[in-house]
Amino acid sequence: RKGFLEKVTIHDVASRIKTNSKYLSEVIMSEYKVASFNEFLNQQRIHYLLKILESENVYRNYTVESLAGYVGYGSKTTFIKAFKEITGLTPNFYLEQLRKQEPVPVSIAG
């Protein structure tokens, strides 16, 4: 699994790459135009999920709660909020459209 799909903090990542969390935070915020590490992490998780939902039909049958857990969210509510902030859609609506094989009007933030 990808590292960002696990429960991870900026301190964990900084330690893995042998830097300090303040510097890493500044780099992420500058390079990815995000306000925080958590915003960056949310974007990575949701973008990854969108890719696998598009390419692997089996995931389209998962519940929203299962998808949330799969991409590293401990809370269904937090996942739904992040998904909607990034895509402009709720996960349920997005999944319904994919299951019908209808084009999904996603405008991804970030």
Strand content: under 5%
N-to-C series of helices and strands: HHHHHH
The SS-based structural class is mainly alpha
Task: Find the count of extended strands (DSSP E, 2+ residues).
Answer: 0
Terminal-residue CA separation? 23 Å
How is the main sheet built?
A: none
Instruction: Summarize the amount of helix as a percent range.
Output: 55-70%
| Residue runs with pLDDT of under 50 for 5 or more positions | none
| Rg from Cα | 15 Å
How does the overall form come out from the CA principal axes? Answer: elongated
Which whole number gives the mean pLDDT?
Answer: 89
Output the number of helix runs. Answer: 6
Describe the overall structure.
- The chain has helices at residues 10-16, 21-32, 37-55, 64-70, 76-87, 91-99.
- It is mostly helical.
- The longest helix has 19 residues, at 37-55.
- The protein is elongated and about 45 Å long.
Write the layout of secondary structure elements.
Elements lengths: L9 H7 L4 H12 L4 H19 L8 H7 L5 H12 L3 H9 L11
In short, what is this structure?
This protein is mainly alpha-helical and 110 residues long. It contains six helices and no strands.
Question: What are the key terms here?
Answer:
6 helices; mainly alpha; 110 residues; 60% helix
